[in-house]
Design goal:
The protein has 432 residues and is of the alpha/beta class. The protein folds into two domains: 202 residues, Aldehyde Dehydrogenase, Chain A, domain 1 (3-Layer(aba) Sandwich), CATH 3.40.605; 211 residues, 3-Layer(aba) Sandwich (Aldehyde Dehydrogenase, Chain A, domain 2), CATH 3.40.309.10. The protein has twelve helices and 18 strands. Strands 11-12-13-10-9-14-15 form a seven-stranded mixed β-sheet, with helices on both faces. The protein has a five-stranded parallel β-sheet with strand order 6-5-4-7-8, with helices on both faces. The chain binds NADP nicotinamide-adenine-dinucleotide phosphate.
């Protein structure tokens, strides 16, 4: 279904669907650890005035509905990762996937409903437009949105949601950077090329976490360009159902138009390093069928002057090579030009630099992937979101936070301080 409806290769489809089942499984395991309780204790008690007077914190489920709005690129993982946390936190879910690829969402939700593992009504699916759904929400409800910054802005500013102080979590777009450090070991360098290539081509670049900015020391630009070009020249674009095809089309005609327009905007400031934006010859695709775009590596001479690269998300197999010189601060200033991201990956072995960069980049990102030579062969590409680590990011990325094991449940819970007779309260809330 993902191949036919979303243009996914089998491997891209597995990334979405295995991501969904893997996340549900991780939260099911967490559910087993939490047991039957409905109040969760948050942290240790706080002594207010010596003796017995203490304050505790508890987390309880909000008494509304969790409304989930998803993007078209992850029709399975998109609803499952949100539903996993909300259901475990104790809220029923109404999920609205993006219309273009909702067939797979419908099918995967149906499998869960038919498995009869949830109370009736705990998981609802709405395919098609959201209509005026958001205008009926109340203050105990929660909205978790994934999609473009433009849609996020209109949802955030919705009068009803503002009036009712409905919690809104936003996962939006992000110009994720992969940063190569000077003097990286061969294994860190190879992992860099491997990950950039994977993120550019996996799901035809339609991943919110895909690497868009390839930031490398000045002196390494030629060898990075050469290594990526060599890899990209081997990518077979074509019918995702055919054997040997590495990259399928983007999902919709509108998406192809958006990729083409985005590339033209970037090309006003950068040049093509590898590929041809106007040429794609899909293998095994019937004439006129499939919304194909070619992989494309762009390049700028002056990383900070190429402002559109730090502002314009091209949601396809496109990335831009950006040089930097000098210190960790110099490299960080190029990364930070993206004004907030879901993930940034750093490849190198110089420990002092790595330490400086973690501190410099953390406030700008929801996740950092640090790849030194010792973990290079095992590390997971930054585009993969893991259920036990937080997903989301500040600024452009929407300012939201999801997943992260039990942390993700907080969106659906009320945190309440309970003060009084500390030992008694501890017993009442199940802390002891
Ligand atoms: P989109 O056009 O913003 O749509 C996202 C969702 O919002 C869809 O379900 C859409 O429904 C719905 N929607 C549109 N207008 C709405 C409104 N007025 N009220 C309520 N819902 C509304 O985004 P997309 O094209 O599907 O997805 C691509 C974007 O998502 C990219 O920018 C990508 O970076 C981002 N993304 C972010 C993450 C993340 O985790 N941060 C993950 C994946 C994708 P319809 O389809 O029915 O219009």
């Amino acid at each position: 279904m993902a191949v036919a409806n979303g243009g996914n290769t089998r491997s891209d489809a597995k990334f979405d669907i295995d991501g969904a089942t893997g996340t549900l499984m991780a939260y099911a395991e967490l559910g087993r650890e939490l047991g039957e309780r409905t109040l969760l204790v948050d942290g240790e008690p706080f002594d207010i005035a010596g003796s017995r007077l203490q304050g505790w914190h508890v987390l309880s489920p909000r008494h509304g509905v969790a409304v989930h709005i998803g993007a078209y690129n992850f029709p399975a993982w998109g609803w499952a990762e949100k539903a996993a946390t909300a259901l475990l936190a104790g809220m029923p879910v109404l999920t609205k996937p993006a219309t273009a690829t909702s067939l797979l969402s419908w099918h995967t939700v149906k499998l869960v409903v038919e498995a009869n593992i949830l109370p009736p009504g705990a998981l609802g699916l709405l395919c098609g437009s959201a209509g005026d759904l958001l205008d009926h929400l109340e203050w105990q409800d929660v909205v978790a949105f994934t999609g473009s910054s433009d849609t996020a802005r209109s949802i955030r500013g919705r009068e009803r949601l503002l009036d009712q102080a409905v919690r809104v979590n936003v996962e939006a777009d992000s110009l994720n950077a992969a940063l190569l450090l000077p003097g990286a070991s061969d294994s860190a360098f190879d992992a860099y090329i491997r990950d950039v290539h994977r993120d550019m081509t996996q799901k035809t670049g339609q991943k919110c976490t895909a690497i868009r900015r390839v930031i490398v020391p000045d002196s390494d630009v030629p060898r990075v360009r050469e290594a990526l070009s060599e890899r990209l020249s081997r990518v077979c674009v074509g019918n995702p159902a055919s054997d040997g095809v590495d990259m399928g089309p983007v999902a919709t005609a509108a998406q192809r138009t958006s990729v083409r327009e985005g590339v033209q905007k970037l090309l006003a400031q950068v040049r093509v390093a590898w590929g041809d934006p106007d040429k794609v010859e899909p293998v095994g695709a019937p004439e006129g069928k499939g919304f194909f775009v070619p992989p494309l590596l762009l390049e700028a001479d002056d990383a900070l002057a190429a402002t559109s690269v730090h502002a314009q998300e091209v949601f396809g197999p496109v990335a831009t090579l950006l040089p930097y010189t000098g210190s960790a601060a110099g490299a960080a200033s190029v990364v930070r030009a993206g004004e907030g991201g879901l993930v940034c990956s750093v490849y190198g072995d110089e420990r002092r630099l790595l330490g400086e960069l973690i501190a410099l980049l953390a406030p700008w990102h929801g996740r950092l992937v640090v790849v030194d030579g010792k973990v290079a062969d095992k590390s997971i590409a930054p585009g993969s979101v893991l259920p036990n680590l937080v997903h989301g990011g500040p600024g452009r990325a929407g300012g939201g936070e999801e997943l992260g094991g039990p942390r993700g449940m907080a969106l659906y819970q009320q945190r309440t301080a309970v003060q009084g007779n500390g030992p008694l309260i501890g017993r009442l809330i199940g802390a002891s």
